[in-house]
Amino acid sequence: MNKPVVLGQFQLEHRTIEVTGREGNTVWLMRIYPDPPMALGCVVELDTDTPRLRLYRAEWPEQLRQEAKQQAATIWKNTHNIHSDAT
């Protein structure tokens, strides 16, 4: 089984969020700062016009949810484009 690969990270207010993924159209979000690290959820359907954010426990206002989806989708697309260009 392949381990998830770190695709990138972004800031969301005071949080540093790490984006990991494997092949496919889903990425996982992990808060790496502040401590302790915590799995936050995932963004699915990244290859569509309407990716969906699924949070495990966190309750975020709509604005933060949209920003997290957008940041994760941008990281995924940039990584996906790099891999597509290499083939």
Folded structure, characterized:
This protein starts with a strand and ends with a helix. The longest helix has 25 residues. It is of the alpha+beta class and 87 residues long. The protein is built from 1 helix and 5 strands. The model has no long low-confidence stretch (mean pLDDT 89). Helix content is 29%, strand content 38%. A 5-stranded antiparallel beta sheet has the order 1-2-3-4-5, covered by helices on one side.
Name a few traits of the molecule:
single chain; 87 residues; alpha+beta; five-stranded antiparallel β-sheet; globular
Percent of residues in helices: 25-40%
The major β-sheet equals: 5 strands, antiparallel
Please, what is the average pLDDT?
Answer: 89
Order of helices and strands: EEEEEH
Coarse structural class: alpha+beta
Strand content: 35-45%
List low-confidence stretches.
Answer: none
- Report, as a whole number of angstroms, the end-to-end distance: 22 Å
The oligomeric state of the chains shown is single chain
Q: What's the number of extended β-strand segments?
A: 5
